[in-house]
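Exercise 7b. Backbone tokens:
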């Protein structure tokens, strides 16, 4: 099931993001790049799968692939593209995660607190940027990937 970008917009607080709609039409090429990135990330369970079910070796491999994919996209963008800061932040989060695991011993599961925090931090960075991009470019996202996005703190 998809989560509407309008619902995501209602959950974001404190971010300056123009809403996709009548008053603003994003460039087709940027929107298509974001749409394809979202589709790619929806299949990357390292971003949303429960920690206790993850194998660190597979997660590291997946994050390497995500970083490679994002880096390729950055290389194809115009240098003044509004997407570059978002993509660079996600790429930096991948690099930080990978730097941690270069120094840590990999076990069979994410049991030690530092590895959980490092993966959580990566997911948090991705969640913020994915949410902003989905709202800005009017793109819906599946529930699994939406689970890492910021949530509205209002009690319902």
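Sequence design result:
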């Amino acid at each position: 099931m998809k989560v509407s970008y309008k619902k995501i917009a209602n959950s974001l607080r404190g971010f300056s993001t123009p809403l996709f709609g009548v008053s603003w039409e994003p460039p087709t090429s940027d929107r298509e790049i974001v749409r394809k990135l979202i589709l790619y990330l929806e299949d990357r369970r390292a971003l949303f799968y429960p920690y206790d079910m993850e194998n660190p070796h597979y997660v590291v491999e997946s994050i390497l692939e995500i970083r490679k994919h994002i880096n390729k996209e950055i290389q194809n963008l115009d240098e003044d593209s509004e997407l570059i800061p978002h993509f660079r932040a996600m790429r930096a989060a991948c690099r930080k995660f990978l730097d941690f695991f270069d120094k840590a011993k990999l076990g069979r599961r994410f049991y030690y607190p530092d590895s959980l925090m490092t993966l959580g931090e990566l997911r948090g960075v991705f969640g913020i940027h994915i949410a902003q991009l989905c709202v800005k470019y009017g793109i819906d996202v599946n529930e699994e990937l939406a689970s890492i996005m910021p949530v509205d703190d209002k009690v319902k």
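Instructor comment: The longest strand covers residues 2-3. The mean pLDDT is 82.
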